[in-house]
Amino acid sequence: QVQLVESGGGLVQPGGSLRLSCAVSGSTFRLVTMGWYRQAPGNQRELVARITSGGSTNYADSVMGRFTVSRDNAKNTVYLQMNSLKPEDTAVYHCNADPPLRILWGQGTQVTVSS
């Protein structure tokens, strides 16, 4: 059984930074690709960043150069460093496997970028 807890969201001004964390329980974490997803009200869910078990990363064009995804397998944690935030980054951010497992979707953490 795998469980996820996201944290680190909040309210920031445009140009600000946040670091999101995803704590994972279970022994499968080290074997799978993990992703960060976001969803704004009325919008489809978007994969913004992913990281493989070996540390290879991919980013959506909309966040490339501003966001950095990393993982610490010893701590069973995935991170998303978010810099130069824009209002269009406002969304609920979730972590999950890539491809995602339906049973792992949780509450996520709210990121709001506003002046």
Account of the 3D structure:
There is one protein chain. This protein is 0% helix and 48% strand. The protein contains no helices and 10 strands. The protein has strands spanning 3-7, 10-12, 18-25, 34-39, 46-51, 57-59, 67-72, 77-82, 91-97, 109-113. A hairpin with a 4-residue loop joins strand 7 and strand 8. The model has no long low-confidence stretch (mean pLDDT 94).
Order of helices and strands: EEEEEEEEEE
Gyration radius (Cα, Å) is 13 Å
Side by side, the strands of the main sheet go: 2-10-9-4-5-6
Ends distance: 41 Å
User: What percent of the residues sit in helical stretches (DSSP H or I)?
Assistant: under 10%
Average pLDDT across residues? 94
Structural class from helices and strands?
mainly beta
Shape: globular
**Strand runs, count:** 10
Task: Characterize the biggest β-sheet.
Answer: 6 strands, mixed
Task: Count every helix, treating DSSP H or I runs of 4 or more residues as helices.
Answer: 0
Report the portion of residues in β strands. over 45%
What's a quick, concise take on this entry?
Helix content is 0%, strand content 48%. It has no helices and 10 strands.
Secondary-structure map:
Elements: E1 3-7, E2 10-12, E3 18-25, E4 34-39, E5 46-51, E6 57-59, E7 67-72, E8 77-82, E9 91-97, E10 109-113
Parallel strand pairs: 2-10
Antiparallel strand pairs: 1-3, 3-8, 4-5, 4-9, 5-6, 7-8, 9-10
